[in-house]
What does this fold into?
Amino acid sequence: MGQKQKPGPFQWFLIILCAVFLCVMLILPLTYIIVTAFREGLGVYIKAITDEYALKAVTLTVQVTLIAVAVNTVFGICAAWCITKFSFHGKKIISTFIDLPVTVSPIIAGLIYILLYGRQSALYPILREYGIKVVFAIPGIVLATIFVTFPFISRELIPVLTAQGTDEEEAAALMGADAFTIFRKVTFPHIKWALLYGVVLCTARAMGEFGAVSVLSGHLRGKTNTMPLYVELLYQGYDFTGAFAISSLLVIMAVAVLALRSILEHKGGKPGDILK
Amino acid sequence: MSENNYVELRHLEKHFKDFHASKDININISKGKLVALLGPSGSGKTTILRMIAGLETPDSGDIILDGKVVNNIPGSERGIGFVFQNYALFRYMTVYDNIAFGLRVKKTKESEIKERVSELLKLIGCEGLEKRYPSQLSGGQRQRVAFARALAPSPQLLLLDEPFAAIDAKVRVELRTWLREMISRLGITSIFVTHDQDEAIEVADEIIVTNQGRVEQKGTPRELYSRPATPFVAQFIGNSIQIKNYADFNCFEQRSPDSTAVLRPEFISVLKKNETQQFSTSADEGVVEDIIFRGSSIELRVRIHGVLLSASRSVNDTPVEVGEKVDVFVYRMYVIDGDTITLVDNDSLKQESVVI
Amino acid sequence: MNFRKSIIPGFGLSFGIMMTILGFIVLVPLAGLVVYTAQISFSDFVETVTRPRILSSYYVSISTALVAAIINSVMGLILAWILVRYDFPGRRLIDGIIELPFALPTAVAGIALTHLTTVNGWVGSFFAKFGIKIAYTRLGITIALVFIGIPFVVRSVQPVLEKFDAQYDEAAHILGAGKIRTFWKVIFPEILPALLSGFTLAFARGIGEYGSVVFIAGNTPYETEITPLLIMSELQEYDYVSATSIALIMLGIAFLILLVNAIIQSVVSKRVSGLA
It folds into this structure.
């Protein structure tokens, strides 16, 4: 990286322009949420976030997030390892399909699961026979959440592994190490910070997903409401303080994610230094 | 013959998609030899090395190590040590753990590992660096550690991919000598890949020259120099220049219509006008266009019959100047006619030998 | 799907896991969409997607997303530029906060922006004095889309600028080119591909966005009704045929945008490598 310039007048103009833009677009909404959440006092705030339905929404969100992150972590590691360490036909197509979910509208993400598992689907009678409810139930929410956060972890890992190359793994394989040993001893140390960052990002998005989950949830209060859906419910019931109180929890999570990201980037940025 | 061969490659073919990387490769390498695979980049030398190691699978043909066809034996069971071009040291392991890795995989006792690692560290002269990470080592040290790591499981065959490419010029020369000594002391059959002919000539017992996926010639460095088997080798080895109008030179005749000739600096002597020599009468006149001081010698670029030749003079000779007219005497040249190559002496040399 | 034998072990296992999860989450649901689509009669499809209300929703979605993506391209470029080139207090803070729209749940952003920009809100009341309404208009939609699109352009351009050696513009400077000329002639062509792909991502994301827009849009038919919302309302009426038809058009548009981007990228990369 080149040395950074000391800003002159024109540069300060650009910097101030950006600062104002970000303040209005990003900082102001954040501040507004926090201020509104506490507008009617701490008591009301605490009551809003300890409401029975609020707690249920938090619990469901945590459960869904845990499952989604776990699945995406396993997938992300396998996909990144497979795509960067081996050459095989169809790799490009597979990569495209992995990245597809982020470019698809969340509403469409919800829609495809409804088409697959909903009442009009050929699978529906089979599912009903076994008593499995997917659409308008928790499994649907989980599937939609996995879908919208699908490539987050593999995307973090693939550039790191590509830059690292396959030499170290080949060297280890030539000495007879098995796959698990190679991954644990040779590959994993390279990706641990990127993996952690991917997991953090995936967690944030999984907790906050609204569109796709909204399609699949069926909005059963207290049963299939995640935190963002609960926020919508309160908001539409004109309980603004409640809506912003729950939102403030999500804001805290988002800020924590950004802080963590900043730390991880700092740590993971220079491999080798962290060893000391 | 063949029981002495440790490595035998028979009719190896390899394609990467449309690229024909190896074309009918046949190589025999005797036990204990240090062999260089030399060729320009893209000539298929690294592919050969990687096929021997089991890092690539040939499309057809046999790889025979110690009399056994190993095509279907995984690289890890072929008894080889491999030194990667960029060493591929495990960046998140200490020097000690790097060297011990192969032994740990083989479930060697920790006490034996300790013994072996300290023995190797002593061998490579890196005692005291056990706890360092690769990023904390110099280029030369990394190379030595990579060498030790490859040797740790006591392989029968050592393969090195461009072992000196990533090192500073000064350390490189030092390491070449070191590597040569080390390998001859251990007596291990070794093959290394290089694109640098000086390196191959200095380090190897035998050189295999590759070009466009084919093996051009195999021989000792001296053989390659004095008896190039193919036009490519004649041009590739030495600081060669190819010319078409070789018959313009005094005492050389056109041997066939489309033939060309290869000249090397050591075939040419450059004399000042006032200097005389036995064959001065059969010399051609040229003009010095450039003078490059090489430290131990002076390299000259001389324009003669429209071509620019390289030649050298000793630093002790009377200096020449740019633009100066000089006498150029060509002792010999390789004449290339299609696929055949002939060493042609200056006619005046023959006459002299007849006279005396 | 055949593959070259590699010395590194573990291909089978990782490939198997990757394809299983990819299959369940992405491939099978997409196949379900294709199968369902095949059952829709073509005349129904055409009739649905050409309803005036739906046509106007395409216009709303595309025009607001386009304007937002353009604003984001300009601001994103300036942001990336000041972050890479200048040293000023608060640089790391700005760098850290850029990703807030990724981390903050869209629904939370949506309600915060809505409340801020209604005629009674902090920002809305200010603009109301000049007769400008933000919330419940297309302007509001555009602002929500600007919010969610900020990180795309910055994060696409930033790495390219970082790699871009200061020696280039020093060289241009020595050759006598002024700063502005240097920027347009030397630097801009280099970052154009990254800028375009950031623009494309922001644009595509904007068309499909739901959570942050649905609150601020007001959802007046023919005025501020976005396409994802129409899919949502068709789904709530269990009219899966209409929902799928509209979704197909959206997928087609998204695909087209990504395709155009891919073509531009390959043309540009050919030009650059041809010169090198």
